[in-house]
Design a protein that fits this description.
CATH class: Alpha Beta
Number of strands: 7
Largest sheet: 7 strands, mixed
Shape: globular
Order of helices and strands: EHEHEHEHEHEE
Bound molecules: S-adenosylmethionine
CATH topology: Rossmann fold
Strand order of the largest sheet: 3-2-1-4-5-7-6
Radius of gyration: 15 Å
């Protein structure tokens, strides 16, 4: 199962179609959500949810029957994209996801790590890492390319 925050045009969903048995993706922008919902309307394995990742992602993770891949990429990304209660909700999301108890072996990725502490409206890198260690103290963590990778013990 893939759980994604920030559908945008659906590029990640499209990539994972052959690889995941179920895909849940969340987009806050009305127009982007409409486009993605239309794009994947004929794909029964894909659910395109509309709203804030802070609400929908923990709920989706709570329905996972086996260890999901959780791709946190839902943040304001310029003109034509949306914004929820927080411009970059990843640190808060990590805590909310931990509360629902993701299955052993879950992998979480926070994309665009380069922006934490560099973009003036983003949380600092310290805030992201503190949230990650608080939420998942037993996880293995490392940065690969531009993503923080959090692997929960199997
Ligand atoms: C970097 S893009 C995502 C790219 C996408 N994952 C892909 O593979 O092409 C970020 C997207 O997150 C959406 N977004 C912003 N804040 C959000 C939130 N709180 N909940 C859900 N989606 C959000 C934006 O509207 C934008 O479409």
């Amino acid at each position: 199962m893939l759980v994604e925050s920030g559908t945008f045009l659906g590029g990640t969903v499209k990539f994972f179609l052959p690889h995941a048995e179920r895909i849940v993706t969340v987009e806050i922008d009305d127009q982007l959500h409409r486009w993605a919902a239309m794009r994947f309307a004929d794909e029964p394995k894909v659910e395109v949810l509309h709203g804030d990742a802070l609400t929908h992602i923990p709920r989706a993770v709570a329905t996972a029957e086996s260890a999901p891949l959780i791709w946190l990429d839902g943040h304001y990304s310029g003109h034509g994209t949306g914004q929820g209660a927080e411009l970059e909700p990843a640190p808060s999301l990590l805590g909310l996801i931990a509360e629902v108890g993701p299955p052993a072996g879950t992998t979480l990725l926070v994309d665009d790590v380069r922006l934490f502490g560099a973009h003036r409206d983003f949380p600092t890198l310290h805030m992201l890492l503190s949230a990650a260690f608080d939420a998942f103290p037993a996880a293995q963590m490392n940065v690969e390319l531009d993503s923080l990778v959090i692997r929960l013990p199997a």
